[in-house]
Amino acid sequence: MRFYLGLNSCCILFSLFFLACNQPKANKATHQTVYIQNINKKFTLYRNGKPFSIKGGAGFTQLKSLRQAGGNTIRTWDTAHLAAVLDSAQANNLAVIVGLPLPTNINMDEFYNNDTKTAKTEKDFTQFVNKYKNHPAVLAWCLGNELPFPYKPKYICFYTVFNNLVDMLHQQDPNHPVTTTVMNVQKQNIINIKLRTDIDFISFNIFGAIQTFKADLDKVDWWWSGPYLITEWGIEGPWIAEEQNAWGAYVENSSTKKAEQYLDTYKKYMPVNDKRFLGSMVFYWGQKQELTPTWFSLFDEKGNKTEVVNVMQYLWTGKQAMMHAPSVKFMLLNDKGARDNILLKPNTIANGKLYFNNADTAKLTYKWELLPEDWYKINGIFSRKKPKEIKGAITANSGTSISFKVPANEGPYRLYVYIYNNNGCYATSNTPFYVVKNP
Q1: What pLDDT shows up at residue 5?
Q2: Which residue, 55, 299, 390, 396, has most beta carbons within 10 Å?
Q3: How far lies 197's CA from each of 89, 158, 194, 331, in Å?
Q4: Distance, CA of 113 to CA of 96 (rounded, Å)
């Protein structure tokens, strides 16, 4: 108790002693199914006796496509339908990092200070782990997602609950390591995970901050020099202020441009030569609504793939894909682009036109869609439900261009286009606009 109530300087003094006595050691338990070995500060993940470098997709669908692209691991965030996910992963020769969800610890009284709730969670997790720990697809357990690991004394109960669960996992299933995820490299999180928990490796969810990831790690390596995994990486999310227009709508690049960004980001910033690096998992392997239905989605609802999937195949295997998605340049709305603060009058006719990077557009099909904008956050989180399409708005459609009737109600909207070829690939582009009576 005194440790938690002490000043930060006390934490620092204790940590120096702790680190001197707790440097990473080689894992000699080679009989384990999955373990991490440290030889001369080179960390290697082993699975079934062989080195295993994680080439993963953060998601739990399109598993056959993941394997075909050269991936070997998926990551779940919760326990929903886990039996089916594990069986499907095993059928496709994939490993699974199983997410065990924990509520946020910002409001401690709702869960972590409630002995009844925490005891039930530990019991439920124990039964769950014992049920699935021998499944051959299990690679590791991920306890919580992006939880804060703060200094403040009021979080004592959080650390007690968290560590009880970590201990349970180690005792019930010594064959699989335990991790937790944090957002970016934050010194407070790293120090407290090192000092107050006994997880086997740290996992990072990192997007735009990957550009400074190596430098950020260097700043904390005297506190912590253990192994790590990147559990989410990709294009920057829809939360960067400079990519908003005048009314707060976020500007989204075409899927073709995103593919270029994924390739460039990986080549420039992925720490593949770091001896502590266990691998990475691209986000999002599947389809999901996050501000838009296309922002992070590498697939559509039917399993058609964007060019990013081909990029990942090249990065994972060194081989280029045979089939590619259409190469989209941009979309214009009334001859204006997404960053031009497009204002339209209600009930007028507007025109959208799509441009390509090459002239070969034969055999392409097009789907245009008009949606009200999901441009706001509820409790800091974008809605996970796709807005309802505005039906009957399109008045003329030639494939690469359309005319549509502007909605009568004022507010923000977004025009989408999906471009499909005949080999299971597709491209996307969209443009936000605002309906106002007197633009």
Answers
A1: 36
A2: 299
A3: 30, 11, 6, 50
A4: 31
Give residue-wise pLDDT tens across range 196-210. 999 999 999 999 999
Q: Inform me whether the pLDDT recorded for 241 exceeds 80.
A: no
Peptide bond into 284 cis (omega under 30): yes
Number of residues that make up the chain: 439
DSSP string, 384-439: SSPPPP-TT-EEEE-SSEEEEEPPSS-EEEEEEEEEE-TTSBEEEEEEEEEE-S--
CA distance 431 to 429: 7
Output the pLDDT for position 15. Answer: 42
Find the DSSP H helices in 197-319.
213-220, 255-269, 307-317
Mean predicted confidence (pLDDT) in 410-427: 96
CA 260 vs. chain centroid, Å, equals 18
For the beta sheet containing 401-405, the strands, ordered from the edge strand earlier in sequence to the opposite edge, are 328-333, 349-356, 401-405, 394-397
Predicted confidence band at 31 (pLDDT cuts at 50, 70, 90)?
A: confident
Confidence of residue 104 (pLDDT cuts 50, 70, 90): very high
Angle between the N-to-C axes of helices 307-317 and 255-269, in degrees from 0 to 180, rounded to the nearest 10 = 20
The half-sphere exposure of 336 on its side-chain side, counting CA atoms within 13 A, is 14
- What interhelical angle do 187-196 and 213-220 show, nearest 10? 50
> Are 420 and 301 spatial neighbours (Cβ–Cβ below 8 Å)?
no
Residue type, 45: L
User: Closest by alpha carbon to 264, among 295, 220, 308?
Assistant: 308
Query: Does pLDDT of 188 surpass 70?
Result: yes
User: What CA–CA distance (Å, rounded) separates 299 from 59?
Assistant: 11
What CA–CA distance (Å, rounded) separates 361 from 365? 9
Average pLDDT, the chain: 91
Task: Identify the CA nearest to 99 among candidates 138, 55, 39, 143.
Answer: 143
pLDDT digits (tens, 9 = 90+) for 297-315: 999 999 999 999 999 999 9
Give yes or no for residue 2 having a pLDDT over 60.
no
Q: Tokens 């008009």 belong to which residue? A: 370
